[in-house]
Amino acid sequence: MSLPPGFLDELRTRSSLSQVVGRKVMWDARKSNQAKGDMWAPCPFHQEKSASFHVDDRKGYYYCFGCHAKGDAISFVRETENVGFMEAVEILAREAGMPVPKQDPQAQQKADLRSQLAEVMEQAVQFFRLQLATGAAGAARAYLAKRGLDEAAIDRWELGFAPDSWQGLWDHLRSKSVPEDLILGAGLAKASTRGGKPYDTFRGRIIYPIRDARGRAIAFGGRAMDPADKAKYLNSPETALFDKGRSLYNHGPARAAAGQGQPLIVAEGYMDVIALQQAGFGAAVAPLGTAVTEHQLRMLWRIAPEPIIALDGDRAGLGAAMRLIDLALPLVEAGQSLRFAIMPEGQDPDDLLRAGGAPALQKLLDQAMPMVRLLWQRETEGRVFDSPERKAALDKALRDKIKLIQDPSIRAHYGQEIKDLRWQLFRPKSGARRGAGRKWDDKGAPVQTTKASVLALARDDMQLREAAILAIVATHPALIESMESGLERMECRDPDLAHLRSVLLAHVGQSADKIAAAAGPSALAALLAQNHIAVIPCIRAPGNLEKARLTVTEELAKLASQRGLSAEIEDAALDLSGQADEGVTWRLTQAARAADLAKRSGQEDKGDFDLGANGARISREERDALDALMGTIRFEKPGS
Question: What is the pLDDT of residue 534?
Fold first, then answer.
């Protein structure tokens, strides 16, 4: 929808971002300056101990130097409350005492429908809860008692019972004058195919209300009491309120518990979540009877950086874990992954808790596997690798999975971990004295690996460029705002450069003197004194803002090009498993030829030549790195 001009600006002006954010965080009193609206806190979007989440109350803008989350009051409410844009606007407008302009008729109609459906769902919650106290629900109460749920737990989870009748809920809601289309629209009843009255969706089942992050009842889950029922568990159909691929059971309470430091645990079912919460593991959720979707995975990462997947120890549970690996690999980022706690065979978290209590589960959580280990287990468990062909098939399967990872650094670490595991599996019996993953020359002495030598060259050159960019921006602070996205994308592996970048991004619009003071008394001076920095024209003669802008823009472009080249080199290095094969050699030869062509054409500074899948452009420095790469390829000593 379109809002009247100026409405959002007025809303942002009236809304104090520090007050909005303050409901979700604890401010760091030492770093924060409330009088200036300069507030710092641990980030609410990822778990951390340091206060790297910055709120500039005067500008109405937040930024996290750890996970790079950023935005204004509207985006903060959207992310933390898991609501849409207009719902976030409405929440802020209510708090600011501003009436929200009427939406276009169609959008307003949809919003009104969701509100009406939510009201009907609350009536259904109360109906089911009352039914659990009736004589017809005796077996249901006995079942819940057997599962260890007392009256307080039943009230806490608002459990109920759907009577085994065709129109029990339908007749109740119609007696309350609830329109038929709303009952059907909420998924509480289904139309008869024989022309009769609609019939209840849930019959003869224990009912588990499903609420969204805001606490609204959006759906139900029902467990059949009849052992012969074809569907043991049944969820509400998808409605205007409920999308099961975008919902999590116990979402809101789990997010609050995770924010207090509890581990986020992903279980399979309602009773697992309830049992976990009863045992003190409050940050537990379930994906509503389906495989975890990409949207649910991103929701989990917004709650905690490393959710623990606690799946049943049966074939189905293991299969779900393996499928989740394939979903997660292209999405992992630094500090954002999954760990896996596989239950003992034939048990789920509820079973384990009843058998061994919280300590047994905690021990399993402490031993949760990183994703790379479960990937290795999937590709190797129960298989025999007694031929070169089988070993090669394993290598190819693992390379194909690792290449799904987008982040070059994570991809490299996965490759090294797999190499170490591969060496342990295939190491010769007489080679115990040699280190995992090392290469040996004809005399038995280790030689430098391709990956270590080449990537060091590429990364050193990238670090020089990063230093130059930060030095120019620090001496021309008016560039910070326009170059913000480019600065954020820089890797800054050097901690001093990473610190300076953080200072720059936290001091948008401030003077060079203030930036120098914030960076430290000698940090900036030491950087500017470096030889390759001191000779930069706009450093030697500062003041020409446009010249500085053009220089930084050019350096950022070259840096992006080098990142692509570095990724190409890492891909090639990962392919060097054991001996350098012809495919890898061919790729590197093609890269070297492109570099040589650039040199002979006198165009190495323009870098107009692509290098394979990453599309990286070649420069003089990059050609040197590739030449070094070709010179470091070694063949392992036979039998090593």
Answer: 86
Residues 224 and 353 in one domain: no
Compute the average pLDDT of residues 612-621.
44
Highest mean pLDDT among 172-181, 254-263, 438-447, 468-477: 172-181
Which CATH number is 186's domain given? 3.90.980.10
**Domain check: are 264 and 226 in the same one?**
no
Is the same domain home to 483 and 578?
yes
CA distance 233 to 340: 25
487 within a domain of the structure (yes/no): yes
pLDDT, tens only, 437-462: 344 343 433 344 444 544 555 567 78
Buried b (16+ CB within 10 A) or exposed e, 192-211: eeeeeebbbbbbbbbbbbbb
Q: Residue 179's closest CA among 243, 113, 270, 237?
A: 113
- The pair of three-digit structure tokens given for residue 32, joined into one six-digit string: 């924060």
- Which burial class, exposed, middle or buried, applies to 464 when counting CB atoms under 10 A from its CB (0-12, 13-18, 19+)? middle
Compute the distance between CA of residue 253 and CA of residue 365 in angstroms, rounded to an integer.
Answer: 20
Q: Select from 37, 63, 96 the last residue of a domain.
A: 96
What was the pLDDT predicted at 463?
86
The per-residue pLDDT for 106 is: 66
* 549 Cα distance to chain centroid: 34
Q: Is the same domain home to 472 and 505?
A: yes
Token readout for 493 is 């592996």
Asked if residue 89 and residue 30 are part of one domain, the reply reads yes
pLDDT for the residue 531: 83
What token pair was written down for 553?
């823009």
Highest mean pLDDT among 33-47, 157-171, 530-544: 157-171
| Statement to judge: residues 192 and 308 lie in one domain | no
Last residue of a domain, one of 42, 64, 96: 96
Assess whether 230 and 287 both reside in one domain.
no
Half-sphere exposure at residue 199, Cβ-oriented, CA atoms within 13 angstroms: 12
Q: How far is CA 516 from the centre of its chain?
A: 34
145 and 293 co-located in one domain? no
Q: Note whether residue 440 is domain-resident.
A: no
Q: What's the distance, Cα to Cα, between the start and end of the chain in Å?
A: 66
| Sequential DSSP letters for 119-186 | HHHHHHHHHHHHHTTSGGGHHHHHHHHHTT--HHHHHHHT-EEE-SSSSHHHHHHHHTT--HHHHHHT
Partners of 161 in the β-ladder: 206
**Domain that includes residue 368, residue range:** 244-427
Burial of residue 99 (number of CB atoms within 10 Å: 0-12, 13-18, 19+): exposed
Total number of domains constituting the chain? 4
Q: Calculate the alpha carbon distances from 98 to 158, 186, 530 in Å.
A: 35, 30, 55
Would residue 437 count as lying in a domain? no
pLDDT in tens, 210-222: 998 878 999 999 9
Neighbours of 572 (CB within 10 A): 23
Which tops the pLDDT comparison, 638 or 288? 288
